[in-house]
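TEACHING EXERCISE
Course module: macromolecular assemblies
Task: Read the component lines below, then compare them to the predicted structure of the full complex.
Student: A.B.
Group: 4
Components provided:
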Amino acid sequence: MKPDDTDLAEMQQPDAAAIPGMDGDGSHEEPRMSEAEEARAERLDEDDRLKPEFVEAVREALVDEHGDVRDLVEPLHPADIADLFEILPREDRPALARGISDLMSGEVISELNDYVRDDLLESLPPDAIAEIAEQLETDDAVALIEDMGAREQAAVLAEMELEDRAAIESALSFPEESAGRLMQRDLVAVPEHITVGDLIDYMRDNGDLTTEFWEVFVVDPAHRPVGTCQLSWILRCPRAIPISDIMKREQTLLPADMDQEEVALRFQKYALISAAVVDKAGRLIGQVTADDIVHIIQEEANEDTLLLSGAGEGDINEPIRTSYSQRVRWLVANLGTALVASLIIAAFGAAIEKLVALAVLMPVVASIGGNAGTQTMAVSVRALAMNQLTRSNTRRVIWREMRVALLNGVTVAALIGGATAMIFTPMLGVVIASAVVINIITAGMAGVLVPVIFDRLDQDPAVASSVFVTMITDSMGFFAFLGLAVASGLVG
Amino acid sequence: MKPDDTDLAEMQQPDAAAIPGMDGDGSHEEPRMSEAEEARAERLDEDDRLKPEFVEAVREALVDEHGDVRDLVEPLHPADIADLFEILPREDRPALARGISDLMSGEVISELNDYVRDDLLESLPPDAIAEIAEQLETDDAVALIEDMGAREQAAVLAEMELEDRAAIESALSFPEESAGRLMQRDLVAVPEHITVGDLIDYMRDNGDLTTEFWEVFVVDPAHRPVGTCQLSWILRCPRAIPISDIMKREQTLLPADMDQEEVALRFQKYALISAAVVDKAGRLIGQVTADDIVHIIQEEANEDTLLLSGAGEGDINEPIRTSYSQRVRWLVANLGTALVASLIIAAFGAAIEKLVALAVLMPVVASIGGNAGTQTMAVSVRALAMNQLTRSNTRRVIWREMRVALLNGVTVAALIGGATAMIFTPMLGVVIASAVVINIITAGMAGVLVPVIFDRLDQDPAVASSVFVTMITDSMGFFAFLGLAVASGLVG
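Instructor-supplied answer key:
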């Protein structure tokens, strides 16, 4: 049976929504909400966040012996259940897990924040964890157990079925945060010579195939990828067409040991939906899909913000001692750099005693320089991460930042110099204006060079650039201002 | 014909690569590279960046009358050609565009950085731009012309075919950075009552259908979405099964005016590959796919880093005057906040004149506080962006940050206090230690509260939090240290 064209609407046209026949049964209903939508609307606000009243209701149900927390939580999507766990205070989480045990699907577990999840898992025996892991795709199962201690990991793996266990052990053999850990091993791979019809029949006949795929990978006899084929192309071709006629030969292959940040960049650059992961011999061993990459990109981009500010992983769910140890090291490093600045000030102690206005104004010069340095540094770190700042254009970018710095410096110097000249003396105005220009230009230079040097040394530029740039701008700020004040004879 | 099972390999098993039959023709070839791969390897380094030597070769070919730049560039992927434009100095770009005019596909154009693209387009007449826009999907075409002046935009639209023009005009009617601008209008929508067989026949018969889809949307007679169906499900079901039996009713609908940041969060939270965009009446008007979202997530996450540092859009390709105007405003704001700190110092001028050690040490207290404030602020801004910090847990997060601040404060205070006591006087050590603890705790409080307050006021917390937090930590640093020095009788 060939369907009537008017029954099938394809929206190439802006007004396709009004295709005749789609309104065929004449029912011009008002927009209505399904029951599930209504239940969701009661629980989530317009920004898709759980409403405080709902969270409160759950907490009350948890303490009330007759409260049925399961009824409250049941309409939520697994991702929202995971959010609920994160928002609840730590002490309420085990009670919630008990109250909704049948809703604790693998999907909920894999959506949980790492810290919240590990915390919950600690209360579970290995066989319960193994049972959860078996429900998950390989990549999620790996994420579940990769942070466990070796002994606990072994105990969980021992409880798993051989097949799942082998898959996880193999994934764990790849480096952390690599394509090999990210990939799922379930995929559909076919030889070049089959036809569209063969492929469809094969898929219809094999009920245990994965459904999580968006492309079919075409492989040679040695199982090396030779092309990919979007499902939409397969659906649109007559049965007799060979797969090799419709596949795309050019494809992005991900070596299993490629870092996940690189994987994410490839997905972004080439707008991929899925990509093949290959082993050292070039054989297809898994696939990475765009929905997993979305998490990675968010993670990596946030990582840079947090690293730049010295906040470590910066997760509000991490244990206090982790936050403390990650942050305090940068504060101590900052203490060291601040002491360098103090030494410079101390060298000019006599000048300050004579002219206390120097002490009043010197933090301004340092602060403006620090701010300008942070701006340039953020731009450079991002450009490095996005592969936009490379050896080919480093000099051009530095020259660009110098010109921006000069413009910024002159503007800010005019303002602070003018104000200082009016309130104190014209000479002090000239001194502070010159110091500001010098410091902003220094900041621009340091803001590009420090991250670039870290990158050339194969260090993550987001990690330590901040400390160095601040040290440079603080020291230069105090030195230029106090030095010029002395050199100009102001405190002579 | 039913294919032989051994011909079709599906990799559920870790060792599936060795499935018998796949090696059937006995050819154990060594891994080899195709010609295209070789050409790429010559041009790109292992991090997928264009090699400096290649970029240099292109520049030489551009000045050499006999150089054939097209031969050099031809093996590159469109995304790499776009990278090449970005890496070349501005003055070389028009020559490259002329030299490879037949390679300047819509894909290259849509991958170009906004500034580089607008710059190139300025040299083209409206009909040439219209021709490029017509090659693109609606969302890319909209991105191409949305930043043009009204008059140029009208000129380009006037040159386009009616159909494409209507699609773009309709997209432009939605707010900037909304789902309506992001969506593509080409999709496949079908009524509930058809079968898998009907759908496949329909797609085979309609050659002009889009191929860029991963799910089929099922709609009711009023064209409102009632469910979605992954292509893999369709491929695996017998022809007689009704679509309504295999579709998933629960789906994430995106209102056309939803902000792209919210859209990206939905894709991430619910691990979507594509999602339906609906108008105010709930009718399906387009789809957003994960490959587009990958860009948005990167953009939005970077935006926060750059905004926090006051670097505006922070693109190394933006014109210098844009960088200048975006950055100088924050430097001027910073000047204002630095002056508040100066006023506080000025109030203690007499004390500093008597004890110049105060001037030497006071920047340390302010700097440590600023650093601690930035750490907490980065964590809070991220948690707000990820919907992890909500009304339900604000108080808990503040309490958490207070405890981290106390630990950090005590550690840093012990170090600086001890050193000061040894070098200067024990009393000055006590004073600076107390000031550091006070300032780090203040920083922790401000680092959470300032972003949360901006968020409650519906302002982007990444934009202005930095200025306020720095002002608070600078002022409190100087005030606590100098005030305690006076109160303790140190400067008699």
